[in-house]
Amino acid sequence: MTRKPTIRDVARLAGVGIGTVSRVLNHSSQVSSSTRERILAAMDELGYRPNVVARHLPRRTTFQNIGVLTPILFSYYSFSERLRGVQSVLQSHRSAYELMLFSIISPARFHERLMEIIHTRTIDGLLIIDLVPTTSDIDALRVAGLPFVGLNHVMRGDWPCIGTDNIRGGQMATRTLIDYGHRRIAYLGDNADDLAGFVTGDERLKGYRRALEAGGIAYNPRLVFRGPHDVQTARQLTHRLLQLKPLPTAIFAMSDTQAMAAIAVLNEAGLRVPDDISVIGYDDLEISQQIGLTTVRHHLDLSGKLGTEYLLACIEENADAPVPMLPPLQVIVRRTVGVPREVNINA
Amino acid sequence: MTRKPTIRDVARLAGVGIGTVSRVLNHSSQVSSSTRERILAAMDELGYRPNVVARHLPRRTTFQNIGVLTPILFSYYSFSERLRGVQSVLQSHRSAYELMLFSIISPARFHERLMEIIHTRTIDGLLIIDLVPTTSDIDALRVAGLPFVGLNHVMRGDWPCIGTDNIRGGQMATRTLIDYGHRRIAYLGDNADDLAGFVTGDERLKGYRRALEAGGIAYNPRLVFRGPHDVQTARQLTHRLLQLKPLPTAIFAMSDTQAMAAIAVLNEAGLRVPDDISVIGYDDLEISQQIGLTTVRHHLDLSGKLGTEYLLACIEENADAPVPMLPPLQVIVRRTVGVPREVNINA
DNA sequence: CTGTTAGCGCCTTCAG
DNA sequence: CTGAAGGCGCTAACAG
Questions:
Q1: Cβ of B58 less than 7 A from strand C
Q2: How far off is chain A from B121, nearest CA to CA, in Å?
Q3: Residue A96's pLDDT is what?
Q4: What is the largest CA-CA distance in chain B?
């Protein structure tokens, strides 16, 4: 007998019925200590381990997992700060849910991936970050009876989500620069072509355009630099930006990561921030405070917390839990934005 | 009938046997298209969804999950970069494993948590990061037949792990400062008291001491600052460090996060880095390059990759896969370390 | 306190 | 091509 021992093997060896073995497995007090000992010994001798899957079938319980679906490679520091919020709620929650992390590289496969998760995974709820499910996605989620909560740019809808207004955030950032007197402002963001579906960058760009318009500044597409959301690309884009003449006097980067990369390149080129050129980011990472980056705070850690709490409420109360609200976006003024000054390194 | 429909309900409605329903569920070609249509219609009408757990029982398959066990709050940016490596391997791997994230706050509960994971979770393998399982932990893992790989400070052993030599890293960092001429070097690290079990900080401190010794410098415990591994604590510790007279001429921070916090506080106090005081970190986060932090590179992303590849090899080949080796540690010289200069802000 | 009996929902032979 | 039967490993009444 080389196969894994089952409850029946244990019962046979201990000379009892499988019911009794099941009782000791479930810590029932209804077993005399002598037979308990005998059964424990038998388990030990056989190296018996209860089959986790089999236990759930008659018991009709779930695995107590919640899933997080996110474009992880998108901007991983902010993801990390958000995840910290998720974890802190999960760990303090009375019913201990574990975390499954589903990430997608290509938004084109979002739908496909979602279906796969719904039908083959054992989760009790799903938190969908930075991605917006379509109507058919939502239907599928509902039909499957899988509670879900979105954490993204959608402000309201007939599905549960905690929205954050990226347009407004982009507008606030750009407006800040304009208020300082800037009129030639570049935008540094991710690539809409590759990332259709991850609309965050589009939204913030839209906010940028609105602020320009409100400030009476003409939109100039040559001041817009976009590419895949990673540090190397941000650096390359900044190098291209440095070819511009005249140079922009300020940059709005759609993420703190890109802002920091830009600042690095600017410094390497001999430009001082904010004396020669101003930079504002978006995220307010914990690290941004340390390096003095002026940025837009959208409460990453808190959003992870609220999203998770909301999801848990949806799972457990089953009713329509109240939708939590994130605090308003905030421009955090630090040291990378100043008044404009014309410089020309391309002279 | 308000309960969830089962395969039997579908069979009844479609007027077929459950075997045939099962066949269409499993995309068997052995079903005539007419009956398939009928069954599909019945499923649709009932809103039938196969029970995921029940499918696994007779099939004797696993859920294809791999777990990552880590002290997540420990230092989450480095965790994040490592995780990126894990995810990249998982997503490119032919058999699509999903990721379960188990984090522990208190190392005291490491063992307990591990047992819980082994016995109640459905994973095919476990990657244990920055934590070292005891002999009994390892036994339990083996008895349960759960493949596991460690990613930590243990360099070798009778269990599968990819080691990184924190002592040597700490030594290299400190040695670098000494080579620049520093003799009064502070150490900024995490708190051993709270975090017994997370020995990373102890190891790097040990390396610090060895380097001092080799450099003929007496160890001064008053130059050692330790506390919980978070930005606020790092800032407070740096403030305390600033009370010292004379001031140290250099700081070795056991993580880049702490190094950046320290630099921020130093700057706020009017000290310039590295002109007035030098700082070296440990991690080489992606962001560290951008801000010019001198640090020790231990290949975070790559370690996540190698660890995951190794684990997958252990799972699939079942044999003793060759233990991968991380490239050697490297001091990355950037702009936060210079020659010492006595300054006294406490005059 | 304990053994026995039904399932949990599905897959997989095995006959037809 | 299809139906019926017999598990997968365990839990949960139910009788004793």
A1: yes
A2: 7
A3: 87
A4: 94
Tens digit of each residue's pLDDT (9 = 90 or more) over A270-282 = 999 999 999 999 9
pLDDT in tens, B245-273: 899 999 999 999 999 999 999 999 999 99
b/e B2-19 (16+ beta carbons within 10 angstroms → b): eeebbbebbbbbbebeee
Q: Report the CATH number of the A7-50 domain.
A: 1.10.260.40
What is the rounded distance in angstroms from the CA atom of residue A321 to the CA atom of residue A312? 9
Q: Which of B48, B53, B285 to mutate to test the interface with A (most CBs of A within 10 A)?
A: B53
Domain B166-298 has CATH 3.40.50.800: no
Topology (CATH level 3) of domain B61-164+300-327: Rossmann fold (3.40.50)
- The pLDDT value recorded for residue B342 is 66
Measured between alpha carbons, how far is residue B46 from residues A52, A118, A121, A140, B34 in Å? 29, 18, 21, 14, 19
Q: Which of B91, B100, B289 sits opposite A100 (nearest CB)?
A: B100
Contact B48/B66 with Cβ under 8 angstroms?
Answer: no
Q: Smallest CA–C1' separation from A8: which nucleotide?
A: D9
Q: Best interface-test mutation with B: which of A49, A90, A98 has the largest number of B CBs within 10 A?
A: A98
Reading the block at residue B214, the tokens are 């080799």
A29 touches strand C (CB under 7 A): yes
pLDDT given at position B198: 74
Question: Could you state, in order of their start, the residue ranges of all structural domains in chain B?
Answer: 7-50, 61-164+300-327, 166-298
User: CB of A341 within 8 Å of any CB in chain B?
Assistant: no
C-alpha distance from B80 to closest chain A C-alpha (Å)? 6
From the CA of A19, how many Å to the C1' of D15? 13
What are the distances in angstroms from CA B253 to CA A194, A320, B170, B204? 39, 48, 9, 9
Looking at the partner chain, which of A54, A263, A287 has a beta carbon nearest the beta carbon of B57? A54
- Give B16 CA → C12 C1' in Å: 17
Confidence of residue A344 (pLDDT cuts 50, 70, 90): low
Identify the three-state secondary structure at position A226.
strand
Specify the residue for token string 């360099």: B155
